[in-house]
Write a structure and sequence with these properties.
about 5% strand; about 100 residues; mainly alpha
Length: about 100
């Protein structure tokens, strides 16, 4: 049988370092990763989709897109709300929370 002794302070430091690393790698860590208005290329990178799927989304009537700037732009906050609105698992499993937040998870 093995016995492992852990210093609580060292464990806490290791956990904090791991959390910090995860935060830094998150696509939400920096506003540079998601500009307020995304162009098609940024949308493709953010969603990890190809040009065909991006074009399909940008041409959907219910997809949040602004065409007033010459090229389609997608407001980041509206995209996140649209994703929430189209996520079936959230609707099915977080109904009370969903309604309290006004439909935005």
């Amino acid at each position: 049988m093995f016995k492992i002794e852990v210093n609580p302070n060292e464990l806490q430091q290791m956990i904090m370092a791991a959390v910090q690393k995860a935060i830094e790698q998150s696509p939400f860590a920096s506003s540079q990763m998601h500009p307020t208005l995304m162009d098609k290329k940024q949308l493709m990178e953010f969603l990890k989709i190809g040009a065909t799927k991006a074009a399909e989304l940008l041409n959907r009537e219910d997809f949040p897109v602004i065409r007033e700037f010459g090229h389609p732009r997608v407001p980041f906050h509206s995209l996140m709300a649209w994703i929430d609105d189209h996520t079936e698992w959230v609707k099915a499993n977080a109904k009370g929370y969903w309604e309290q937040r006004g439909g935005v998870a």
